[in-house]
Amino acid sequence: MSSLIPTSLGRLFVTDTGSGPVTVLVHSLFVDQVSWALVVESLAPGRRLILIDAPNHGRSEPADRDFTVEDAARAAAEVLDHLGIAEPVDWVGNALGGHIGIVLAATQPARIRSLVTIGTPVQSLSFRERWTQCVPLVQGYRLLGSHRMLVKPLANALLGSDAMAAQPDQAKATMDAFRNVDRPAMLRAMRCFMLQRPSLDNLLPKITAPTLMIAADRDPTGWVPADAEKAVAGMPNASAVAVKGAGHIAPLLLEPDRIAEILQDFWAHSANRTP
Question: Pairing mode, if any, of strands 89-94 and 238-243?
């Protein structure tokens, strides 16, 4: 069942399906919950899945003000409250969804039973990334919107050519979320979630919930398995694993069964550990 749920950042589009331990899935910047479709097919049996379109993404209503990752984490907690979910949840976040999960696990630890991030850099943008990649992307989108001249290189960065070739229908459906989103809303999301994103390094040691950081082996943005290994080294209860892919979202298309298997194994091993 899908519905719009009121939060402090407007009504967020949420899909609530299945039964069992509660798992929250939140997508990457630029796309929406459709990006999880192949993973959900493998993961659904025995799980209650809560898929959230992040603020200013997908079918969520545009927020009428600027916001932070901390604001998005509070809005996610409000979604859980609205659904009557008081018990800790297993959080799975892809890129932006991982940022939100890190903040929630560090600031509201009672909410999180376990945390998994996929393709989630924890550092803020470097000077080079900001001015050679992100600022030009924002300005290009401001001028052109979702023109194919912009969508194609963005898809290459997020998904990679291998994933687009392996799953062309899912790749198109994933990028359609960017093509169809409200332009002013996406511009605000890009500014707030990308250009203004702070480093999350200082939050990592505060996270006591079992944590797994998954990184694609050929991510062109620079967040590769070695970076994930470095990040978890300073955490009390965390590990990292590498998967195939050339972009933050690529593993969800290239290896959905493998991602589901990794998640199930991680949950099984962390079931007896308490945050």
Answer: unpaired
